[in-house]
Amino acid sequence: MNDGWSTHSSHWGAFSARWDGRGVEVEPDAGDPAPSPMLDNFTDSLRHKARLQRPMVRRSWLAKTGEPRGFDGAFVAMPWDEVLDLLAAELSRVHKAYGAESIYGGSYGWASAGRFHHAQSQIHRFLNVAFGGYVRSVNSYSAGASAVILPHVLGSFEALSRRNVTWEQVSQHSDTVLAFGGMALKNSMVASGGISRHVERDAMQKAAQRGTRFYCISPLGDDLPEQAGATWLPIRVGSDVALMLGLAHSLVAENLHDRDFLARYCTGYDIFERYLLGLDDGQPKDAGWASAITGIDAAEIVALARRSAQGRTLVTVSHSLQRARHGEQPVWMGAVLAAMLGQIGLPGGGYNYALGALGHTGRRVNAVPIPTMPQGRNGVEAFIPVARISDMLLAPGQPFDYNGRALRYPDIKLVYWAGGNPFHHHQDINRLRRAFNVPQTIVVHETAWTPTARFADIVLPATMTLERDDIGAAATDPRLIAMRKVAPPVGEARDDFEIFAALARRLGVEQAYTEGRDSRQWLAHLYETTRTALAAKGLDAPSFDEFWQRGELALPSEPDDGGLLRAFRDDPEAGKLPTPSGKIEVFSQTIAGFDYEDCPGHPTWLPPSDQPSARHSLTLIANQPATRLHSQLDFGRYSQSSKIAGREVVRLNPVDAQARGVAAGDIVRLFNDRGACLAAAAISDQVAAGVIHLPTGAWYDPLPGDGDQPLCIHGNPNVLTRDVGTSRLAQGCTGQVTIVECEKYTGPLPPIRAFDPPSPVT
Ligand code: PGD
């Protein structure tokens, strides 16, 4: 590139960048119609004080003093050769003494966009090669419940979310979009692996201009962009299934449900209809019943059912709804409601789980494979659903249920993490603190002194994406991006690949790990899969060097064909769904057979188990932030610009603020029985009454000397959330909602320490 500019990419957009020795200039990709302002977080991040510069080892771990791990422990700097010898010896010791089933390498996290320096792939490959495997995690914090329920009732989560109704179809065909949980642009700004074109805003605007009516069904009115011109239905938190049932009942009451579709394409509707009509429990799930639960007017529910039965109607359900106790139910009931409307598989209609939840959805899928780092084979059977990490560490050997199986938690002695931040992403951080004190050794590769790094024993500095060459690609993005190194690594930071290669050498498996390739040779090797597929289609398929020179390459897409649901609609025999019956399972014999009280055999209204009380009267929504991806670059310019007095901003409805004497800009304390945090108040009528909104991602910053449940002085909502699975079926993350109280904070305001390296560091 000219004048020192390099093409690069991130989970939140493609861009060019230039390093001047102190800061980074960033220019969004010229072809991106709506670049993410989160790109600004890169500008001053590379040499920020929060960056990890040298390998560090916890002093008390080295001295074996048995002192608990904590935020404020002392670390000792160690030269690379020494720390790698030490770590190789520790890995060998644990492996020899307890086996590979004592090493937790689940290591969840988004890390960076590049496909080669993909921290997950690197750590998994290393543990597979070195020890024949590790205890893994399954599913994600994003889609823990839907990834398990959808295959039982409709098809795989990937197929249903990624190759289904596109934004092109919405802008051309949809008349009504029932967006349960909304489709906020802050979420579709992001796609793992990269996103070169942000199309959602313009697609919704185009649709609205054509006449599409969007309904934002959420306690937050701005969960759809203003360009959608949406009607806001401020539903009570966690009551979407009741609204869906009320709509379904209204359809039946007026004979508007599509009986032919239900008979031809579904199984078990008759069983579900008995429940819907209340034939066994005496409670019809009618609009009046739904209104009492949801707070939405009964006449409005009936009118919405009527409208949905006319024209082309699309039902979408966001990830957020299933990141809660009983999160399987809205995912399933959304599909059943769409089935009753009879439009599943039609352009712009039917059901698209997670449309707008990430930039991966609503797009055409690439017709050629993207580069993927091979991870090798994991020979260890034991695994956990990803959000059960604290349970596993705190209760080794204890039984748990998962998707019809009775399993036991493995006994973990060593935790190895690269590319994730559990002290950001996991629920009930005070419980996680206890859990992180159980293993003998914790190893973390990080770019910065995240709270997770501060709770580790061996902390190895990893390069940030801008400090290395890579290839950016996602299976739903039409561009392969040459992610060219922008700046030299900070301090002694090394690529994860280099670190694992050096460890592999010490463990005698270097050749198996590297296959004799250096980083550059791996990039060329991984690129070859894409190049060969392009050449086979007779398309532009430049050599690796030419691709690198050009900076990007266009990838072809599959047709906008509606995926598996369209194929099923067109021919239910030839296009059978991958469910036990080959049809849409309105009732699932398999799930009923598991006999889980918290996930029955058909979609069911199960009231939230965590209800507001006199002591804790507000429902907290802890969702994805708008100013950064998760916790990444919280110290970056854009993220910091949104804070008030350095604290994360919490939004309250004017009524709730007034009742507590809270004004805009005040510092407030949020608390419940699990913990407490400070945040800065903003007052907004876009937040329903009784609801309080604090996004995730502010780095955990506990007040020193504040006991077992220290106040987080920065605003991390995961000190408040509950660490309990969605149900015995999926055991997914339930971090989206919890019950709290809020009061004005008048004490002295402690300085933020989250971005200061731990002291003393010698
Ligand atoms: P990130 O902040 O993306 O969060 O959780 P996740 O752990 O993915 O963490 C990635 C880390 O990787 C960062 O600390 C970054 O510095 C590091 N990193 C970046 N590049 C590299 C690299 O090349 N090498 C190494 N070694 N490290 C690197 C996200 C998770 O949070 C997700 S996906 C969801 S959907 C959940 N959402 C919620 C929620 O809605 N509500 C609550 N309460 N909690 C949630 N937690 C979950």
Provide an overview of this structure.
By secondary structure, the protein is an alpha/beta fold. It is built from 27 helices and 29 strands. The strands form eight sheets. Strands 5-4-19-18-17-6 form a six-stranded mixed beta sheet. It has a six-stranded mixed barrel with strand order 24-28-25-27-26-29. The chain has a five-stranded parallel beta sheet with strand order 10-9-8-12-13. Helix 3 (119-131) packs parallel to helix 20 (496-506) and helix 12 (287-294) packs across helix 13 (298-309). The longest helix has 19 residues, at 80-98. The two termini are 41 Å apart. It binds ligand PGD. Ligand PGD binds at residues 109-112, 117, 119, 141-142, 323, 418-421, 424-425, 445-448, 450, 462, 496, 622-624, 629-632, 696, 717-718, 721, 735-736. Ligand PGD is lined by residues 109-112, 117, 119, 141-142, 323, 418-421, 424-425, 445-448, 450, 462, 496, 622-624, 629-632, 696, 717-718, 721, 735-736.
In terms of topology, how is this protein built?
Layout: E1 6-10, E2 13-19, E3 24-28, E4 56-58, H1 59-62, E5 75-77, H2 80-98, E6 103-104, H3 119-131, E7 136-138, H4 146-153, H5 157-162, H6 167-173, E8 176-180, H7 185-188, H8 200-210, E9 213-217, E10 231-233, H9 240-253, H10 259-265, E11 266-267, H11 269-277, H12 287-294, H13 298-309, E12 313-317, H14 319-322, H15 328-341, E13 350-353, E14 383-385, H16 389-394, E15 399-402, E16 405-408, E17 414-418, H17 422-425, H18 429-435, E18 441-446, H19 451-454, E19 458-461, E20 470-472, E21 479-483, H20 496-506, H21 510-514, H22 519-536, H23 544-550, E22 552-554, H24 563-570, E23 584-585, H25 589-594, E24 618-621, H26 637-641, E25 649-652, H27 654-659, E26 667-671, E27 676-683, E28 691-693, E29 737-744
Parallel strand pairs: 6-17, 7-14, 8-9, 8-12, 9-10, 11-23, 12-13, 17-18, 18-19, 24-28, 25-27
Antiparallel strand pairs: 1-2, 2-3, 4-5, 4-19, 15-16, 20-21, 21-22, 24-29, 25-28, 26-27, 26-29
Residues 109-112, 117, 119, 141-142, 323, 418-421, 424-425, 445-448, 450, 462, 496, 622-624, 629-632, 696, 717-718, 721, 735-736 line the site of ligand PGD.
